[in-house]
Write a structure and sequence with these properties.
The structure is a homodimer.
Chain A (H helix, E strand, L loop, with lengths): L14 H6 L5 E4 L4 E3 L7 E7 L2 E6 L5 E7 L4 E2 L10 E4 L3 E7 H10 L1 H27 L2 H15 L7 E3 L4 H8 L3 H13 L3 E2 L5 E4 L2 H8 L7
Antiparallel strand pairs in A: 1-8, 2-7, 3-6, 3-8, 4-5, 4-7, 9-11, 10-11
The structure holds a DNA duplex (30 and 30 nucleotides).
DNA sequence: CGCTAGCTTGATGGTACTCAACCGCAGTGG
DNA sequence: CCACTGCGGTTGAGTACCATCAAGCTAGCG
């Protein structure tokens, strides 16, 4: 079996370090290590270079909401003011680059178009979060799972028959999509029975029928 | 009966026009009139001066997701790139001020702290959307309704016994919270039966027992 | 070979959706 | 003045989906 293709949008990698003219601030995080906690001073952003980050909140009743998974090329840290608003840790060995806010603001003064790009990235993140709201609000369990897998397939450079990495465990998926682990498992089993996907290992999947997957994810499109 | 208190965070009103040194771009929109549509060129932001805006998407299956209600002081237009990503209309007679992006970018070059403030507002909107995700994902119908009413009460300058405006219809609330109109109606009826709130008219409500309302909205707090 | 963690599968029940009828108010016209 | 109509909202009965509780399975590892 081939190794599962990893998630990467490599065009974005090193995006900011170039603009800032610095090569500092790299950091390696091992699996399950915490990058920051809710309440920590948010003095900058993190650019994911490799691996996967998991942003989440834990509630008083013990339940957990996973707000985002961040893959290489993603920036973590928008949507936080002075302090981080949720916890963030790694679900695999991960490399990140720290981008201090003050150096970024300084750079923006010299390169105003950088500020525009930053605002665009914040907008994109907002758009993504709104899509998530819609997903959680309007979709059935099957549609949520399908959308989730489709999202990963789209971010990875998917090609027919190639195994894709599924770096998070079932519980993580459940806590991200607002489902229980049992429902996640059952739904994936059904999709496998219908030959839409294949699960060669627990932490990877193959899309056999992309059209069917898209169809199962449905309801993405507005009427316009 | 007193007229219902209107939603207003007046400290923010005229925020940007001051910084931009312009008084232009005001526009009045009547009830149900469209401000912009998905796909329209997003050449700027709108600041709500009075009334209420409704941002929404309509899907191929005919269902609708209301993404946001915007009250006086709110800025509409973050999270859109070149083009608006959802439709927006008024659910009451509404006044808005248009803030062109290019004049804003020009102003930022002279006042960099303005850019920071803009980024903060985008962050706040992102945080609000994330909260909405959590609401939709983790809460029961009763908790959603309670959170929604609590949110309005907090934004309005609530005082005990005062009637608050509920400018949107039941279907709007349902489409915002990911519920059906029947569930919204039933849930409100139950809250009224328990004397937590009162519904003097269709489009207003009174919070009788703020502690109970907060309790019903619960699960807001993280463990930290 | 036995242990464990993560996952799967099964049985049951509750919450919210669906379909349907009804209510109350406002506007309209005879 | 009153019947008619339309719309937004409420209430009721039945159902589907997903959560819960519980047990069994599988891969990996000492």
């Amino acid at each position: 079996m081939q190794p599962a293709a990893s998630l990467s949008t490599s065009s974005e990698v090193h995006l900011w370090s170039e603009a800032l003219g610095t090569s500092s601030g790299c950091r390696s995080i091992s699996n399950a290590e915490v990058l920051f906690r809710e309440g920590d001073e948010a003095s900058g952003f993190y650019e994911v270079l490799s691996g996967t980050l998991r942003g989440y909140k834990i509630f008083a009743d013990g339940s957990r909401q996973i707000i985002s998974f961040s893959y290489p090329g993603d920036i973590v840290g928008f949507g936080h003011g002075e302090a981080f608003r949720f916890d963030c840790d790694a679900i695999a060995d991960t490399k990140v680059r720290f981008i201090p806010k003050n150096s970024l603001l300084k750079a923006i003064k010299e390169q105003p178009e950088l500020g525009e790009r930053l605002l665009t990235m914040a907008s994109d993140e907002l758009a993504h979060t709104q899509d998530l709201s819609i997903l959680l609000c309007r979709k059935s369990a099957a549609e949520r799972i399908a959308s989730f897998l489709l999202n990963i397939a789209t971010r990875s450079n998917w090609r027919p028959g190639v195994a894709l990495a599924l770096p998070m465990c079932r519980q993580d998926i459940a806590d991200h999509l607002g489902l229980t682990i049992e429902t996640v498992s059952r739904t994936i089993t059904k999709m496998r029975a219908r030959r839409v996907i294949d699960i060669p290992t627990r932490s990877s999947f193959v899309v056999n029928d992309m059209a069917a997957l898209r169809h199962a994810a449905q309801a993405e499109d507005t009427v316009h």
